Amino acid sequence: MPVTVLTQSSLPNHPSCRFGIALMLLFTYLPLVFSRTVTYNWDVSWVNASPDGFSRPVIGINGLWPCPPISVTIGDRVIINLRNNLGNETTSLHFHGLFQTGSNTMDGPAGVTQCPIPPGEMFTYDFVVQQPGTYWYHSHRKAQYIDGFRGAFIVHDPSAPFKYDEEVVLTVSDWYRDQAPGLVNYFQSPQNVIDHDGAEPIPNSALMQDAQNSKINVKPGKTYLFRVANIGSFVGSYLSFEDHEMTIVEVDGVYTEPQKTNQIYLTVAQRYSVLVTTKSSTDRNFVIQSTLDTDMFDTIPPWAQPDVNGYLVYNSKKPLPALPPLRDLAPFDDMKLKPKDCQRVLGRVDHQIIMEMDFITDAGVNRAIINNNSYVPQKVPTLYTALSAGKQATNPVVYGVNSNSYVLRYNEVVEVVLINHDDGGHPWHLHGHNFQIIDRSPTDTEYNPANVVPLSKTPIRRDVVQVRSKGYVVIRFRADNPGVQLFHCHIEWHVEAGLVATFIEAPEKLQNSLSIPHQHRKICEQQGIPTRGNAAGNTKDYTDLTGANTEFEKNNWGALITPPKKLAKMGLEFKA
Hints:
Largest sheet: 6 strands, mixed
Shape: globular
Number of helices: 7
Structural class: mainly beta
Strand order of the largest sheet: 10-9-12-17-14-15
Mean pLDDT: 93
Distance between the termini: 57 Å
Number of strands: 30
Radius of gyration: 23 Å
C-alpha cells in the first residue's frame, strides 16, 4: 500500500485541522485491522403499503417495506446478492455517495456501469466501504425508486470526531400514489406539454420514516445523533425539531466543524448528521416538523399534502402536541459549513468544464439539454466502452454525442461551472466523488468568471449541490478515482428528460485495474446488450458511431419491459 507523506509545510496550523488529518490517516489504516464481510441476500419484489393512508404496490425487500437500512463499519466488505422478482421490470442498485474506488462496476446506474438486471436473475454487488458517514441506496433504473426501492446506508466510524448516546436514522421524502411507469410516460409525453407546459408530477404527500406521525422514543438528558436523509425523488424538504437545537456535524459523508441551527433544508439526495440533546424533563413531548419545498411545484393543488410530522416521545402517557405547519422557512446556509479536515481550496485548475443547462420542447416533449445535447443511454454501457476501447478510450467521441461525455486525466483538478438557464432550482449529484463548492450564486445571476471568488479557503464538500433558479454554481474535485462517473440532476423526472452528463475518469488506468465480472457479462448477453465497442457497439472502428442512440425514447414506460398495449388517457395522473 502506498504511504501518504505529509510535510510540516503542507499541514494547516489550526488544531482542529491537525485533528482532521489524524482522522484521515486513521481511516486509511484502521480498516486493515478490523474489517469484516457483511452479506445481504435480497429478494426484490412487489408488496403493498400505505405510508400516507393510501394503499399501493411498492418495491420491497424480502417481502417487507420500508426497505431495510444497511448498517456497516468503515472498512467492511459488503456483499449484496440481489434477485429481481419484479416480474415485468428490470432494476439496478446504486449506493449514493460511496465513491466505489477500485470497484466502479458496482456503482449501479443501468446502461452506464452495468446492464439492467432482468426479472428472475441474480446480481451480486461486492465492494469495500472506505468512507464513514450517512449515505443511502436506491434503484438507478428509469425513475424506479419512486416506487419505494430505496433505503439508508449507514457507515459507522469508531473514531468519529463527536460523541453521542444513541443514533436515529431519520428519512424524509415526497411520495406519489401513482406508480412510476405511468407517471414517467405521461411526463415525457406531448400531452403533458399541452396540459401542463411539461411540468413535473406533483407528489401527493410528504413522508418521515416512510410513514406519517412517526414516534421516536427518547430519554431525558441524552445526546442523539440524527442521521437525516432526503430519499425523495423530486422535492427538497425543510426540517426542524420543536424547541430543540441541532448541531450539524456531517453533510454527505463529510465531517464538519460543529454548527448550531434550528432548521435545515435538504434537497433530494442530500444528508445531514445532527446532534440533538434532549431535555431533562419528561413533562411533555415535542414535534419534529418537515414540509416539502412547494416553490418547486408548478402549481399547488388542493389535494397536495406537503406537511408531515414526527414526534420526540419523552412520555408515552402524555399527549402528542399539535403545531401549525412549518411556514417560517429560514434554514442554515450550508455554504457556511467548514469541513473538519480543513481541506484547502483546490487551486491551479487543470481542466475547466462549462455546462449550460436548460429545457426545450423536442418533438412535442419537454427535454433537458446540457450544452444543447440531451442525454440518451447508449447501446453499450459506457464503462464497457471505456474498458474495451484501448487507446481510443481517451477520445470522448467514442462514447456517443448524447452521452454528454467528458474525459478527465488522472489526478487533474477539475472545475465544473454549471449555469442554470431554467427558472427552477436543481440538485446536482456527482458519482465517485464529493466536491468543493467554490461559489454558488443567488437566483437570477449571470455567470461572469471575473466575479467567481472562492467563498472560503476551506470550502465545504458535498456530493449534491443545489444550483439556483437562473444562477450558477462552481465546483472542484480531483480526478483521482478512475471510472465512469455520472453527473446529473437528482430530480428523477429530469434524469428521464436527459439532464445527465458523464465523466470518463482516467480510462487508461481503469483498463489496467478493472474487469467486468462474469455474472455482469452474463446478464448483458441474456438481453442482447453488447459488452464491447463504442456507443453504437462498433468494435472495428471506435470513431464510427453509425447506429448510436441519438433520439430519446418516444414512449417511455420507465423500467417496464412490456408496456401497456394502449396508453390510457391519464389527463392528469398527478392527482389523488
